[in-house]
Each structure stands twice: as C-alpha cells, then as structure tokens.
C-alpha cells in the first residue's frame, strides 16, 4: 500500500467513524427541549467566559454543519435561550450570552449526551482514547 492509499484509507475510516457515531447519538436529542444545532451553539456559549461568546466564534466552533447560523441564533433569542447584543469591540459583530434558561436546558441535555458519548467512546480503552485525542489534535494543528 502506498503512502497516499494509506492516507486515503485512514481519512475515510475517520470520516465514516465520526459519521456513524454522530448518527447513533442523534437520538440523544429526541424529545429534548433544544435541537442538536441549538445544543451546538450553547456548547460554545455556555463554556465561554461569563457564558458569552462572539457570534463569529460560535460559527467557527460549530460541530455540525449550519449554514444559517444567524437565523438559528435569532430563533434561539426569540425562545429565550440566549441574548444577542452588539460587540462593543467590533461594531460589525455580535455577542451571544446564554440566559439562565438556556444554560439550564443545555446542562440537562449535556449530562445525558455526555453519558451517551462516554458509552460510545468506551469501545476504546483509556490509552486508545488518549492516542485518539493526540492524533486528532495533531490533525487539527493544535
């Protein structure tokens, strides 16, 4: 096998594993108070300092494809999950802040979703998980 063939096989396997795991975990959001896309926004916002993040950072950190982030954010504002304000340091940008309800809703789902992730990842032992983390961070340039 050539280096190129190995690289292609490794990439395809990584991509398929991520896709299959994602498909298995979509059921975590069945009957939840927020959608997977809303969870993804709240993931960045709630974990940010003072539960506030720039819209551009939220967009950059999205774990799922969401071409209409602005519309999603506007829906979340209208549902009372986050607030949106002008960024005083960047007049073109916006700051998103999780509301108390948004943070609580996120944390409830995060607990069960975290258990689901841990269950799926338990297919790997701790050393394999550390290796996977190191390899994926290396691929991401971290």
Automatic annotation (TrEMBL):
Boundaries of every HTH marR-type domain copy: 1-141
SUPFAM superfamilies, sorted: Winged helix' DNA-binding domain
An annotated GO BP: response to stress
Keywords: DNA-binding, Transcription, Transcription regulation
Molecular function as annotated in GO: DNA binding; DNA-binding transcription factor activity
Protein name: MarR family transcriptional regulator
Source organism of this protein record: Microbacterium bovistercoris
């Amino acid at each position: 096998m050539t280096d190129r063939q190995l690289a292609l096989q490794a990439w395809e396997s990584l991509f398929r594993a991520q896709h299959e795991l994602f498909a298995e975990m979509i059921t975590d959001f069945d009957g939840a108070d927020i959608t997977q896309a809303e969870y993804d926004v709240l993931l960045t916002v709630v974990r940010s300092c003072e539960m506030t993040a720039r819209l551009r950072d939220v967009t950059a950190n999205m774990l799922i494809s969401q071409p209409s982030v602005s519309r999603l954010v506007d829906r979340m504002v209208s549902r009372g999950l986050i607030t949106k304000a002008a960024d005083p340091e960047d007049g073109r940008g916006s700051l998103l802040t999780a509301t108390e309800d948004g943070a609580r809703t996120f944390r409830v789902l995060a607990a069960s979703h975290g258990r689901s992730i841990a269950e799926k990842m338990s297919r790997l032992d701790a050393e394999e998980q550390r290796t996977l983390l190191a390899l994926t961070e290396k691929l991401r340039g971290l």
